[in-house]
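In this section we walk through a basic example: taking a raw amino acid sequence and producing a predicted 3D structure, encoded as discrete structure tokens. The instruction is simple. Fold the sequence below.
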Amino acid sequence: MSYEEILDSVIFKINDYQLTVYNLLAAIAVLVITRLALFIVRLALRRAARKADPHDTRHHSIYLLIKYFGWTLAIVLAINALGVSVSILLASSAALFVGLGFGLQTTFMDLISGIIILVENNIKINDVVEVDGLVAQVREIGLRTSKVETRDDITMIIPNRMFIDNKIINWSHSKRDTRFQIDLGVSYNSDPEKVREVLLACACDHTDILTKKGRMPFVRFTDYADSSINFSLFFFSKNAFRIEQTKSELRFEIFKNLKEAGIVIPFPQQDVYIKSMPEAKK
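The resulting token sequence is shown next.
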């Protein structure tokens, strides 16, 4: 049996359709070549990203778009290689697709939202985002869903439409250095300059707080309250995802150093002045 005869051998036949060895090998070849091409594209994008900016994750979004488009095209070509007309298949399944469209509206919304996220690139891998009061770090962006990790190290799978329909705070969108603040009040007997000195010393000694030019911690005298004079300590940090732990450690140090400096953190209190007392009945 010749090589051509082997390729033309019929594996199975249904009515007018027949599947030959050549058709099967052609379909497999299309899928294998697509996988190999996507692997090469991924390596090329990774190398380009490392040279340009290691923190830039746009290459991942570009790869996902190429990947989804590539596999869609590969599946269409593979079906054609098997001898099945895609146009006839789509025409005969039009009614089915209409029914699926109504039943899978939410899924299609997620798919479109995923494409929008990848194209606009407003949310990237490792970004710290806040969704409905939940702060999490983006670990993976898919076409329909995305994986995020909360501060409790819990992985959540979120539909992509939540990133489009809801108001999102992206703590990492513009810069990696994010500003935070800690508010506190001290007694009216305290020296404001001494308070500022203690707060700045605590902030500058913490390893997660930036002290470079333009990112130095600073203190504001914010208010004369009923029982205290209020201050706000502002500082910059790259550790936006774990900032609550940084704030906790900073509060411990502030409390300790204020106590050592003789500065009192008051509790709410009221003074009652009695002008006269009723006479006691005899």
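Looking at the output, two observations stand out. The first helix runs from residue 3 to 7. The radius of gyration is 32 Å. In the next section we compare this with other chains.
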